[in-house]
Amino acid sequence: MYKSVIRPILFGFDPEKIHYFTFSTLRFLNKIPGAKSVFKSLYQVDDKRLEREVFGLKFKNPVGLAAGFDKDAKLYKELSNLGFGFIEIGTLTPKGQEGNPKKRLFRLKEDSAIINRMGFNNGGVFEAVERLKKNNGVLIGGNIGKNKLTPNEDAVSDYEICFDALYDYVDYFVVNVSSPNTPNLRALQDKEPLTQLLQTLQQKNTTKPKQKPILLKIAPDLTDEQLLDIVDIVNDTKIAGVIATNTTISREGLTSENQKETGGLSGKPLTKRSTEVIRFLSEKSNKSFPIIGVGGIHSAEDALEKLDAGASLVQLYTGFIYEGPELIKKINKKLLQKK
After folding, report:
1. Averaged pLDDT for residues 302-314
2. What are the binding residues?
3. Is residue 292, in this structure, part of any structural domain at all?
4. Known binding site for substrate: residues?
5. Which has fewest Cβ within 10 Å: 187, 262, 290, 338?
């Protein structure tokens, strides 16, 4: 029903406007008596065999929602009713910011893809914290970044502010230095600044009553040499793991009319490269740290490929938009068939 009826209607409107309309609709529907139970019966697959224990956390199933969809933690409860095992909010910055000028979100229908240049638009970490205080049982990841106007030499302090603010309200952290939509942000992926950033956060982590897993989200555009650096950095700083991958700046093989829009590309064109990065990191690290696989998952088979390549968990974003919540159910059902 989603692909045949709902999606054609949604895709007839501006992507960013329809995103907020969908949020409002989901929130409204979940307030109707009995609606939560209906959503859960339609999309949730409850089976102990789907549970995963990764970096000390228990996930009820391995399919999560990637960051970028619920940036401000406004809809994590309603989205969890659609069958996700965990929800990653953000990217959050210390101060609220508008992000880049509109229009900044583009569908590439022929390629089953999206280009975005949102630019970390969010209301700020402290607004999100107020919403997270109302959480009751949803496993939450907190994706953190720096404000656009913060120079790279001061970036560490932005990440520290977000870490401290979110510490009591998220189950794991994700350090985002790989978005192509904040000027010079990807320079923080270089070995020296990245090591310093992660070491600082890990040091702060050790001062807390209980350490929270810290993960690093990386770009798919890194060379093999840079990926080997990532393996070294993860092992040296002893962070919990890696999320592979963020959006790409590559435009190889696209056919859609608006393919030349600047920003990060997500969706089917990223499927192969994301899986290659997962396999490379898994093999070169001798599986020494967990990987969350994300990028171009549009089918149950895509998810299984990433898990087979070495991912412990997977996340959806563009595939969720194109395929609908039925995709979550299909992946979990497929995993049970393999048991």
Report:
1. 98
2. 67-71, 91, 116-120, 143, 176, 181, 217, 245-247, 267, 296, 317-318
3. yes
4. 71, 116-120, 176, 181, 246-247
5. 338
> CATH code at 241?
3.20.20.70
Q: Would you say residue 6 lies in a domain?
A: no
Range of the domain at 106: 42-338
**pLDDT tens, 86-145?**
999 999 999 999 999 999 999 999 999 999 999 999 999 999 999 999 999 999 999 999
The catalytic residue positions are: 179
Report yes or no on 2 lying in a domain: no
Q: Check pLDDT > 90 for residue 319.
A: yes
Domain count, the chain: 1
Mind listing the pLDDT tens digit for each residue in 279-289? 999 999 999 99
Residue 110 lies in a domain: yes
So what's the pLDDT on residue 1?
81
Q: What are the backbone angles phi and psi of residue 239, rounded to the nearest 5°?
A: -70, 170
Closest-CA residue to 169 (of 257, 90, 85, 272):
90
Strand order in the sheet with 264-267: 105-108, 113-116, 264-267
